[in-house]
Design a protein that fits this description.
The complex is a heterodimer of chains A (498) and B (408). Helix content of chain A is 41%, strand content 10%. In chain A, the strands form two sheets. In chain A, strands 3-2-1-4-7-10-11 form a seven-stranded mixed beta sheet, with helices on both faces. In chain A, α5 runs antiparallel to α6. The longest helix of chain A has 32 residues. Chain B has a seven-stranded mixed beta sheet, with helices on both faces. A three-stranded antiparallel beta sheet of chain B has the order 5-6-8. Chain B is globular, with a radius of gyration of 22 Å. In chain B, α12 runs antiparallel to α13. Chain B is of the alpha/beta class and 408 residues long. In chain B, a hairpin with a 2-residue loop joins β9 and β10. The N terminus of chain B is likely disordered. The chains are: A alpha/beta (498), B alpha/beta (408). Chains A and B meet through β11 and α15 of A and α14 of B.
Chain lengths: 498, 408
């Protein structure tokens, strides 16, 4: 049997091969010579040789591009690379584990003078790198605009605050953005030849500013995104034949109403609902970082309702936002304790009765996107059967669903992680050169091969870890965020088969 | 009218007693108001034999507390002399506040003996407290809230006062009837979950659960066994067991503490609810939480049967976060029934002499021992498999959805 088969198989293969070759030879096509298939050791040797050759030509000042098995995403990012060895294991954008692939990274990447790429963590390579120098900012102002439209000076001013991370917090950033837009609207006059100023407002005023902030300064938060969508909708809903003055007044009024209702009053309502969960005396409440909503509700409970409780403020590097919380609460007379994140389990097991957390965004499956470290706190509280309440206004609800912290996140400045001396960092004031003092174990981290520093801004708390979400409509279980979204946008709700 | 002055208890008692709303409520609770649409399997409860509210032996009717409250509110509407909707709503709001306050206080003062020799006043107070014994005020307040919302919506639709008033009355009647018919709907959606040949464990005395199981046995003609927990301190389980046996369902009684022991042999657990809270959890007779945890641990489905008017906007974070509920008495009797029944057998006693024997076996505690007798506890949503309601079979996360819609 076998003897008969193999000749037949061989014949078939032989028959197939010539036909393949015949197919492949149209005359006008130039076929590059095939690369010989190298084994792993051979490929390594080849790369070493190439590296050595390059080191000779480039004077050897370049840091050795040891990417240790990361490629794919970085290969696509590197500009001007000749050969790309994108292996199928480039699963970085999908959030899988970093695979130590066979392919060493293409050495041509080292030719890229931008050193940052070498220090980029491939798992998060799908996220935009943080923007750095002021020079870059200033040059981009004049060069990046379309139609020679210069930006109103308020825009880069705010952009600078965003980029240097001086202005933090979903509510603060959103309010500042809306205030700037109000300023822009006030100083805007539609060009005389436009038929519909709505298009022009959107095209030359709103969009460039927002894009500038997002691409040149710092990726926008969900709160900013939702507010911007609201503003665009308000512009689109203006009547066609309105005078610009009237339209402007309407828009300014809408902006004012948005901030008042959805941020300010929402905060008061949240404070009222959550306050009913704080007992008259004896509660020990744990908070993390700085959240405007949580500070408000704690102050109201202590000062207006006269409740007696203690607060434990948990803080984390590099932003150390908890210091502001500590200041605000202790000034109001609330007894506070301050710890860093590593002391969390000690406290949680002993005395904490409730945990209040803020949020940057709520996903529609009920998971909470918040400052990095929040998930830690929530999960540990869960493990100790301590209720976790998240305070968040409804305008921060995002109709995205996110399952883990990798796909939708933001990278911060890795330099901040390197600077390990807490005592010397100025609170909440991160611009200026002063902070980069000497010393620190990691001051020369860029020269270290195989060392990368990662500074993430956000993380995702799964909905199962949250006991309740406090919004202005009441306290809800996390599964009801989707219901809220549906109620808020009845037109876009799925109607089923009616 | 009733004041909010809690410091003067006796004063308050007198005022409450004379308050027509309270009197009305007790009348409704103790009268045998027959529920109109009874399925063929409705339990012939012994409660229905009570003639009037003033006799010592008056039992409680099977009517749920919120439904009685709604009837009271309907009477308030009829009696009200308000000329505007706002006035009417104010009357209703006041009446419902009085009832909720009464229900909340319906217990903390320890009851004296049920003697004929005590004065009429305190007897009446005793009656009132007895009628509310063990019932949580949660269902009462949520039922009243819903009814008030109903009225408000009606007032928005019909601006004219007199026509609105009559419409509200008519709707109110329908609401009360709907609440009663809810039990039948629940029985029909929940019945299929009782499988032939299964063992069903219940806790507490819920009319809804009773009607569900009776319907499964008598109408759907399934054969199954019911296991009942005793239900201290009000022997709720024992009373249910009587009902089940009378209708031909084989019943087993166990002590409350034996719930872990029997859970391995049980196929499903079904309980009623005093209130269904916003996160999908339930507030029910104390012991339900333990039952829920046990059932989840051993992989037994845990079902809750509750009418939709029991959905309330409460959000307890844990058991310590429940609102205060008065038990029928902070005093419990601790009886050594094991030795008492052993001794009774020896003496071949008649009924009167066995009563005397009991006092020998009651364990008297010094007053310094603190007794806590919470009537209800909170079972979080993660222990509940499904809820059987008159809106259909819901998952716990759907409760919030429903509440958002109801209270919009």
């Amino acid at each position: 049997m076998g003897a008969e088969e193999t000749p037949a198989a061989a014949a078939a293969a032989a028959a197939a091969a010539p036909t393949k070759k015949e197919k492949k030879k149209p005359t006008n096509l130039v076929i590059p010579p095939k690369k010989p298939k190298l084994s792993k050791a051979e490929r390594r040797a080849l790369q070493e040789a190439q590296r050595a050759a390059k080191a000779d030509t480039h004077g050897g000042e370049k840091p050795k591009p040891k990417k240790g098995g990361s490629d794919g995403g970085t290969a696509s990012k590197g500009a001007g690379t000749e050969e790309k060895r994108i292996s199928s294991s480039s699963s970085a954008p999908e959030g899988g584990a970093v695979v130590d692939g066979d392919g060493q990274e293409n050495s041509s990447l080292a030719m890229n003078p931008d050193k940052k790429d070498d220090k980029m963590v491939s798992l998060f390579s799908h996220l935009p790198q943080p923007k750095h120098t002021t020079d870059q900012l200033l040059s981009s102002i004049s060069s990046s605009n379309n139609d020679n439209n210069l930006l109103h000076p308020a825009v880069p001013t705010l952009g600078h605050l965003y980029q240097t991370r001086s202005l933090l917090g979903g509510n603060a950033r959103c309010r500042a953005m809306l205030q700037t837009f109000a300023l822009l609207l006030q100083s805007y006059t539609p060009p005389p030849d436009t038929r519909d100023f709505r298009v022009d407002v959107d095209h030359s005023l709103l969009k460039p500013a927002f894009q500038y902030w997002t691409t040149q300064c710092r990726p926008h938060s969900v709160s900013m995104g939702n507010a911007f969508s609201f503003l665009k909708l308000a512009v689109a809903n203006l009547e066609r034949d309105l005078e610009w003055n009237e339209a402007r007044d309407i828009l300014l009024e809408s902006l004012e109403a948005y901030v008042t209702e959805r941020i300010q009053y929402a905060g008061k309502a949240i404070s009222r609902h959550a306050g009913s969960k704080i007992q008259e005396r004896g509660d020990v409440i744990l908070v993390f970082g700085r959240s405007e909503v949580i500070n408000r509700l704690l102050l109201d409970a202590a000062l207006m309702d006269g409740k007696t409780f203690r607060v434990i403020v948990v803080d984390s590097r590099p932003l150390l936002e908890g210091r502001d919380t500590l200041e605000i609460l202790s000034r109001a007379g609330i007894p506070c304790t301050y710890v860093l994140l590593n002391a969390l389990s000690y406290l949680m097991m002993r005395e904490v009765t409730k945990v209040f957390l803020g949020a940057s965004a709520l996903m529609s499956n009920g998971s909470v996107l918040s400052r990095v470290g929040t998930a830690c706190v929530a999960l540990l509280a869960n493990a100790n059967h301590i209720p976790v309440l998240v305070g968040c206004e409804t305008y921060k609800i995002c109709n995205r669903v996110q399952l883990e912290s990798i796909t939708g996140n933001e990278l911060g400045d890795a330099e901040e992680v390197a600077f390990t001396d807490c005592a010397r960092v100025e609170p909440s004031n991160r611009w200026g050169e002063g902070k980069k003092k000497d010393g620190g174990v990691l001051s020369d981290w860029k020269k270290q091969p195989n060392l990368k520093l990662l500074n993430l801004m956000y993380d995702l708390t799964p909905s199962s870890a949250v006991t309740g979400i406090v919004t202005e409509v009441g306290i809800l279980p996390p599964s009801s965020v989707a219901v809220l979204l549906r109620e808020m946008n009845p037109d876009s709700a799925f109607k089923g088969t009616d | 009218m009733a004041s909010e002055n809690y410091h003067d208890d006796e004063q308050l008692e007198l005022q409450e007693k004379q308050h027509p709303v309270i009197a009305d409520l007790c009348l409704h609770l103790s009268n045998n108001k027959k529920s109109p649409s009874i399925s063929s399997g409705d339990p012939p409860s012994a409660d229905k034999l009570a003639p009037s509210s003033s006799s010592k032996t008056s039992k409680r009717s099977s009517i749920p507390l919120p439904v009685a409250a709604i009837r009271v509110l309907l009477n308030v509407i009829r009696r009200s002399r308000a000329e505007t909707m706002m006035g009417l709503q104010a009357d209703l709001r006041e009446a419902s506040d009085v009832m909720v306050t009464f229900a909340k206080r319906g217990g903390p003062i320890p009851p004296t003996d049920f003697d004929d020799t005590s004065s009429n006043n305190s007897t009446q107070q005793q009656q009132q407290r007895y009628l509310l014994a063990g019932r949580s005020h949660i269902a009462l307040s949520s039922g009243c809230e819903l009814f008030l919302k109903y009225v408000t919506r009606a007032s928005l639709e019909t601006p004219d006062f007199t026509s609105c008033k009559s419409q509200v009355l008519e709707r109110g009647e329908r609401f009360a009837e709907f609440s009663i018919a809810a039990r039948d709907r629940i029985s029909s959606v929940g019945g299929p979950f009782v499988r032939e040949g299964s063992v069903v464990l219940t806790h507490g005395r819920s009319r809804v659960v009773e009607s569900l199981l009776l319907r499964a046995a008598l109408v759907e003609k399934k054969r199954f066994r019911v296991m009942v927990l005793e239900g201290r301190p009000d022997a709720a389980g024992a009373k249910s067991a009587r009902t089940y046996e009378k209708n031909g369902i084989p019943t087993t009684m166990v002590l409350d503490s034996a719930m872990g022991y029997v859970m391995e042999r049980v196929d499903m657990v079904i309980v009623g609810a005093e209130g269904v809270v916003e996160n999908g959890g339930v507030v029910n007779k104390v012991g339900t939480f333990s039952l829920g945890v046990m059932a989840k641990e051993l992989g037994v489905p845990f079902y809750v049967a509750a009418e939709s008017y029991k959905f309330t906007r409460l959000y307890p974070l844990n058991n310590s976060d429940l609102p205060e509920m008065g038990g029928i008495g902070e005093s419990l009797q601790f009886l050594d029934t094991l030795n008492w029944s052993a001794s009774a057998k020896k003496e071949e006693s008649t009924s009167t002499s066995s009563l005397q024997d009991v006092s020998d076996y009651i364990v008297n505690l010094p007053s310094t021992v603190e007794i806590q007798n919470p009537p209800c506890d909170f079972t979080p949503a993660k222990y509940i498999t499904l809820l059987f309601t008159d809106l259909g079979v819901l998952t716990p996360s759907a409760v919030s959805d429903e509440l958002i819609r109801l209270y919009q």
